[in-house]
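Suppose you are handed a protein chain with no further information: no name, no annotation, nothing but its sequence. What can you learn? This example shows the usual starting point.
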Amino acid sequence: MTQPIDKSKVNRRQFLKQTGSLAAVAAVLSSLAPAVFAGEDNTIRLALIGCGGRGGDAVGDALSVPDSGPVKLYAMADLQQSRLESSYKALQGRFKDKVDVTENRKFIGFDAYRKAIDILKPGDIAMCTTRAYIRPVHVEYAIRKGINVFMEKPFAPDPGGLHRLLRAGEEAEKKSVKVAAGLQCRHSPARQALIERIRDGAMGEIPLIRANRLGGGSWLSNQGDGANNLMNQLQFGKIHLFWVGSGHMVDNLIHQIDECCWIKDMWPVSAHGMGGRVPRSKDFGQNIDVYSMEFTFADGTKAFCGFRRIDKTHSEFATYIHGTKCAAQFSGRTHAATCSRTSGSTRTTSHGRPQRTSTVPGSTSGTSSSTASATIGRIMK
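A reasonable first move is to predict its three-dimensional structure. Written in structure tokens, the prediction is:
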């Protein structure tokens, strides 16, 4: 049974540590005004580990949450001084009063993550936003120290790394440490509304889902004498080398594969895939150009997911649900939550072809929320 909360005695750090559910933390803390947290310093401190574009964006989202209570960027860690300084200047320009990173809290090197995490306290948050090659190590260390985690996708470059994260997640549950993942689509109000209608049976059974991300892309050029240099690989291999960043398919299609599992409310039990490169490819990276995957769920239903990076070809960025009562588009380009449609009226697509459609009862449209603000940000309220 859930016990009532005495707001006059609530401490934000203790609450984050003792509450067992990320969703519960977000919901309850959202209802508490910052003034109810009394006593000691309740500022939530962020340590940014990986100061590239994704890391800066995640911190920006977290610091932009309205009425979140005292939150500040407290430490930064990266392999490159120049990248750290660039990110620091950009964030300080946007959030001057919320960026409190002194020179002795800027850490450089492969062990920088330890130094940044070590100066946090339980209830603070380690924002793990490097590429996937080192993610399990960072997440494990933060959880071991009792620090909450935000981790960007992709999560690990190989099955061994993913199993390490699963074990770390089990340890986090034992310690009541919160872990939020960079899958922002689940925090879209429009998608949540359609999921609710699906659960209520508005679409009937869901035997088939199609999810495609088809577009152009770029190949990796010959890196010459620097090809085998470790530090060089960490730069040019972000999407081109599997061991660094999991490759471009995993890095991008992960969102729509996650949507399929969310729609079905289960994980697939098998997956079969195929793919290939275009003729006369001059790509020096490890990616292939076309991927096609068939996921099968325990009830025998299917999700077909496709990914392509070939210039001057048909583009599509969408997830479609085929129900026994109606069909729906779950998401669209750049993760827009385009939720609706079944047989009824006629509309014209962007390709000029008519389709018979009408709105699924209770469906809505809108854009997806960023994960850092929807998960991390709401924890801090």
